[in-house]
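Writing this down once: the sequence line spells out the residues, with the fold written below as integer tokens. This is how one looks:
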Amino acid sequence: MAEKVRIEKDSMGEMEVPANAYYAAQTARAVENFPISGLRFSRRFIQALGRCKVAAARANMQLGLLSADIGRGIEQAALEVADGKLDDQFVVDIFQTGSGTSTNMNANEVIANRACEILGKERGDKSAVHPNDHVNMGQSTNDMFPTAIHVAALGGVEDHVLPAMRELADAFAAKATEFEDVVKAGRTHLQDAVPVTLGQEFSGYAGVIRHGIARIENARGHIAEIPVGGTALGTGLNAHPEYAPRVVNELRTLTGQLFRTAENRFEAMQNRDAAVELSGALKVVAVGLMKIANDLRLMTSGPATGFQEIVVPATQPGSSIMPGKVNPVIAEAVNMVAAQIVGNDTAISIAGMNGNLDLNVMMPVIAHNLLESVELMGNTCRVFADKCIRGIVANRDRCEEYAERTSSLVTALAPVVGYDAAAKVFKKSVQDNVPIRQAILDSGLLEPERVAEILDLKKLTEGGRAD
């Protein structure tokens, strides 16, 4: 049975639209024009776009530009968009017109037709609520779409990414305290190095995340700037002079975030540098997370033929063929997420370069990739903390064994016996496959008591010279 349709019109003519759809002609055209990926904008972006439309309607009502009945209908419909009640009506592909006009009009049409219903009118009755004249009043896609990107991104950072990162940093810090007395062999170039405590290594991981938190916090100031009110190019054509500050105040109320009008609307319209900056901060964290995850995979390798300095929580069977095998799957997932975020950042960077004259024309891909990175980062940090880091157990005996066996223990002897003599002890230790402690005793260079004093493993992790 053929789907029931209705006829909607736009400036290019008539279009068939599913009878039960809230969207209209321009959205239907975009669906036909961009059957590219099947990817749609995220819940967080649609929420932000809905809130921007709510704020605009309220500002225009306050200014007497939008009648109270039409304004209230638009406000209620836009709140439904923000609350996710109309998500199935957002049907345009991510890969579309570079300004995001198709999705902005998707929102305008959905809100207009839903507002018509709220006011007791028929869908498509533009004399009652018009998607351009009423819903898009005082706006252009060129200022509304990047505003929605910033609203979505800042919300995601504040309520999702930063809390999860703080949890992860705290989890690493707790393990740093728990493992502060676990001495092990350090490794540089994957070769034996001087002793270090497992706690010191984990304190470094906490530091990576805390530095990442600071980087992301620093990016918030620019994301909080929004170009709303700039309309097409930044001049504010067709927007009331008081419209922008009123929209900003409404967005503050709706989100709890301290948005402000852009210091220079022309910069804010031409460039997406704030999004590139935030993406770069997320990328730095992703790079650090991959390094940490790989460290943990090495430290837990085994159980019989690897390092086995730590044991990570067993979360699921690791093999369909090797019975009993358990793999560090959480760390592996972290690595894959890190790779995705780095890839997203590359796409965002390229997109950021494609501002031609007065407008960036790759905003949809910036929105999609940035918000995906935001979601991935928050989810991954929380999973990493909950399902891996908090449950890590130190293999104290193995760590102590490695600390005693590391050939670079000889470093502590160099200030006492000299670099060349210490190097001979090192070579003898490797040749005879005996610990440095035994090799120095065999050399007769120092008395046993002095060797024991110099090679106090815990003291060696605390800095200073043995002499």
Q: What stands out?
A: The chain has a mean pLDDT of 96.
